[in-house]
Specification:
Strand content: under 5%
Largest sheet: none
Distance between the termini: 19 Å
Radius of gyration: 16 Å
Structural class: mainly alpha
Number of strands: 0
Oligomer: single chain
Shape: globular
Order of helices and strands: HHHHHH
Number of helices: 6
């Protein structure tokens, strides 16, 4: 947390999340597990977005393409906030597409606003 006083202030929410995540464990595997779970959430949200917008075939292609992307895999297994940001962005996009297409609910407004605000 000392780095936040000089350089990494933008990462304070991530550091706080990882501090809370320390309940799971403090090792490298436990810290990377948060990113892996966020990456899985991003794949699921991206596939669902594609399904709403273009159908089941597009959802399968989107999910497989994202999950098999080398850069995505590298980012997801890294203990950094990139996968979490991608997950929030994917969920916000899914919520927006759900609202616009008419398949969303009132709750969709919250799932669009919260990830969008949390990125800033």
């Amino acid at each position: 947390m000392q780095a936040t006083s000089h350089v990494d202030r933008v990462l304070v929410p991530y550091y706080l999340l990882m501090h809370v995540w320390g309940v799971v464990g403090h090792g490298a595997v436990a810290m990377r597990l948060a990113s892996v779970l966020a990456g899985a959430g991003a794949v699921a949200a991206a596939a669902r977005t594609a399904q709403i917008a273009w159908g089941t075939t597009a959802a399968v292609v989107t999910g497989v393409a994202l999950a098999a992307n080398g850069q995505f895999i590298s980012t997801t297994i890294d203990a950094r906030p990139y996968a979490l940001v991608l997950c929030f962005t994917s969920v916000a996009t899914l919520s927006l597409v759900s609202i616009v297409s008419g398949t969303g609910t009132t709750r969709s407004w919250w799932t669009t606003a919260v990830p969008s605000v949390s990125r800033y």
